[in-house]
């Protein structure tokens, strides 16, 4: 038995000594190993080839905060809605008061001019307010709301303050040595038309675009609330002017308006907050969005305006039945109102005129609040400023 064990032990030692000999002669086997190990490296490299997709996924994860889902509410979201409401009250509300200001120009400061020539001043204000959005929108997408809103507020209030230093009428203008009335017309065009129009473009583009940062499903309701501000301002500012113009005159009336606008815009600057970090890009004008047929026809459909009740109602309804469905229904409603009521208006049935004004204003008012929401539905929140600004730069020609 011992001999048998001794015979097996060397074999065991020999079997264990083979790897030792292999290790001792590692140089010999290393030289021979490359042909066997090289094919193994190939599959390892092929397994590692999915690394670029992993990197791409990592980069998309880093960009997700720019396009993540809006919170659909919360304190900051509704405070932003309130701030945007204050902005539209100050800017659009004063623009809607031109029915009081323009007759004053025609009677006092610009009496030698025809009414159609005076209308160019307010027309320039509205045109620039919409048209300049084509550049302001990309700026908003890149830089956010803070500085654009601050700059627009200062420009707008500066225009109102400048109006407060203009003469009361043509006779005063002549006594002050200013060539009347051409120079006064130019100053009104500069201050009301160009300066205030540019400031309004900055403020309103930001006030509407920032809603896309906070709302998606409730964006219609939020926009409807914001656009009610223009109707509130359009009701309040004329009452103020009808009281102050006869008693205090032009200069102090404009200074009071400047103080009111400063208060409202100041609240807007404090309350409005952006949520999405600016996207990379040049911030330059880009008309590439017109290649999207849906965006193009949505822009065509925004050539209208209307009342505050329609703006609020349409915003809430659109969240339930869809934005484009609401746009179609309100457009059909306006067409039916035109044929069913407007064509029947006669001198002895003036009540039909008031009925038509209420119904048609309700129908077309929906377009004001739904138009930007339909545009926003065609793009991500991070690009809303560009799409909105480009769309309403075209609407400015309507």
Automatic annotation (TrEMBL):
Membrane topology summary: Multi-pass membrane protein
Pfam families: MFS_1 (PF07690)
Keyword Magnesium annotated: no
Gene Ontology terms, MF aspect: transmembrane transporter activity
Cell location: Membrane
Keywords: Membrane, Transmembrane, Transmembrane helix
An annotated GO cellular component: membrane
Chain intervals with Polar residues compositional bias: 14-30
Protein name, UniProt field: Monocarboxylate transporter
Recorded superkingdom: Eukaryota
Domain Major facilitator superfamily (MFS) profile: 254-398
Keyword Repressor: no
Ranges that cross the membrane: 73-94, 118-140, 147-166, 186-208, 220-240, 252-272, 327-345, 351-375
Lineage: Eukaryota, Fungi, Dikarya, Ascomycota, Pezizomycotina
Family: Belongs to the major facilitator superfamily. Monocarboxylate porter (TC 2.A.1.13) family.
Record field: compositional bias (Basic and acidic residues): 1-10
């Amino acid at each position: 038995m011992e001999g048998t064990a001794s015979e097996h032990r060397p074999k065991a030692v020999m079997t264990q000594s083979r790897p030792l000999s292999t290790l001792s002669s590692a140089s010999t086997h290393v030289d021979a190993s490359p042909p066997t190990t090289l094919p193994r490296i190939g599959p390892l490299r092929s397994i590692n080839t999915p690394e670029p997709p992993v990197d791409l996924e990592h980069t998309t994860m880093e960009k997700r905060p720019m396009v993540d889902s809006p919170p659909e509410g919360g304190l900051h979201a509704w405070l932003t809605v309130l701030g945007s409401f204050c902005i539209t009250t100050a800017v659009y509300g004063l623009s809607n008061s031109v029915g009081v200001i323009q007759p004053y120009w025609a009677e006092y400061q610009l009496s030698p001019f025809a009414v159609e020539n005076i209308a160019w001043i307010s027309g320039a204000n509205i045109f620039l307010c919409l048209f300049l959005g084509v550049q302001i929108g990309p700026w908003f997408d890149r830089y956010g709301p803070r500085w654009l809103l601050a700059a627009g507020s200062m420009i707008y209030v500066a225009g109102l303050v400048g109006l407060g230093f203009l003469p009361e009428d043509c006779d005063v203008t002549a006594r002050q040595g200013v060539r009347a009335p051409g120079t006064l017309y130019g100053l009104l065009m500069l201050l009301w038309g160009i300066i205030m129009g540019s400031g309004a473009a900055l403020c309103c583009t930001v006030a509407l675009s920032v809603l896309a940062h906070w709302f998606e499903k409730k964006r219609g309701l939020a926009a409807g609330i914001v656009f009610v501000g223009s109707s509130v301002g359009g009701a309040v500012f004329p009452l103020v002017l009808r009281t102050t113009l006869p008693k205090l005159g032009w200069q102090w009336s404009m200074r009071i308006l400047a103080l009111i606008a400063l208060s409202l815009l100041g609240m807007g600057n404090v309350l409005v907050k952006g949520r999405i970090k600016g996207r990379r890009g040049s911030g330059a004008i880009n008309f590439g969005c017109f290649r999207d047929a849906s965006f193009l026809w949505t822009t065509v459909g925004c050539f209208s305006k209307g009342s505050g009740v329609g703006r609020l109602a349409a915003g809430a309804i659109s969240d339930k039945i869809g934005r484009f469905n609401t746009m179609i229904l309100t457009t059909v409603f306006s067409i039916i109102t035109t044929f069913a009521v407007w064509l029947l208006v006669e001198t002895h049935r003036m009540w039909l005129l008031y009925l038509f004004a209420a119904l048609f204003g309700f129908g077309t008012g929906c377009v004001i609040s739904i138009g930007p929401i339909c545009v926003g539905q065609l793009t991500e929140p991070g690009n809303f400023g560009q799409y909105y600004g480009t769309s309403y730069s075209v609407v400015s020609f309507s």
